[in-house]
Amino acid sequence: MTVKETDIVEDALLQEGLKKYRKLLRRINDEIWEHPEIRFVEHRAHDLLTKVLEEHQFKVTRNYILETGFRAEFSPESGKYASLGPNVCFICEYDALPIVGHACGHNLIAESGIAMALLTQHVMTECPSRYPGKITVIGSPGEEGGGGKIIMIEAFNDVDVAMMLHPSNKGILHTESICSSRIFAAYSGKRPEETAHYFPSLDRMLPGSESDAAVAAYNAIQVLRAEMPHQWRIGAVIKKIDHSLGLEITYRTLHGADMSVLCARIVKCLEAGGAAAGCQLDWRFTDPYLNMWPNICLGSTVYSYLKRPEILFEYGLNKEFNALLSTDMGNVSHLVPSIHPMYYIDTPTSLHHPDFAKQANTPEAENRMLDCAQAAAHTALKLLRDPNELLRVPVRHNGQLRRKKRPQKYTLRRIRARGIAQESTHRYNK
């Protein structure tokens, strides 16, 4: 059978599988959309997705690494051919945003992960010996601010390629993203209420107060903004941190290597605020979301199998676009060849807006997602049946790594070498 004939047969089987599972997939979408759960408490979604996979002969590990994480594996004929081919991974996200629900479309991401898995499985079972290897579904909770995939990064150690599909108000095939992390800084010193009775008529913060330290640090960060490269970003807000007054700071860079540099400069601003006001500083930071490195080979293969690519992806094969967003899928892409295409769901509304949540539950949005899921499943089948295609993917991926500044391990090692490990505490005594 020629490659073209194989593609035709696979396409027919994928259409058959889509017809078979269409109602089930819609039920998954509706259930998750109607019952939004924020990061790390997605118990209903976790139970729903794992139950569906168990019912379809996947070997499921519930509460995998995280309480609402899971891992599901399938290889036909009881894993007879599992070790003879690649491990293709599909990723589900299912956490919602506070207040606005699924305004990032994670209901569609969860459905697409299951759709890719079931469609690929449907074809694999028709001729097991033709598709050696296995497929894995990783349930990744807490993407919205929790960095679930960073915590679960070891889950991808035995994965050969990883795929996730994301809805968007722009169609971006080769999605790039930026690095992001947060610093939580708290000051301890004289509190205004401790000295207010001496100056009852003064409605201001006295020297040595936590607020003075926070304001001084905030002003120093404002100066840093003016001096730093224009590709870097800092957002800071003064608020209560750990029952003290302090700052929550979000900082972003294009490349992982720059994160440690910017973090160190922000910490100096925080220390200056504490020194000026005579306050003690306690701070910690979250593990960074690294920039997404889309695998061009995988993304282009998915694009070639789409029925209406020009509608789904405005920024197609030869168009680069950095979405200027951050995702923990970036950390996965530094470990294994990965794709994170963002398909257009026919809305001008940006992500995290209430209107986007409404659009993410429409039949048209689901139809577009299923078009992408079918193309991604076709890509997975091509990798499983053609070892030469699999060999080309890592080579191109490594080529991307060489063109970038730093791989993930170097970035994290550099951060720790500078004494800025996660949960580090620095004190500036009065």
From TrEMBL:
Single GO MF descriptor: dipeptidase activity
Q: Which PANTHER family match?
A: PEPTIDASE M20 (PTHR30575), XAA-ARG DIPEPTIDASE (PTHR30575:SF0)
State the family named in the UniProt similarity comment for this chain: Belongs to the peptidase M20A family.
Q: Mind telling me what this protein is named?
A: Peptidase M20 domain-containing protein 2
What is the originating organism of this protein?
A: Varroa destructor (Honeybee mite)
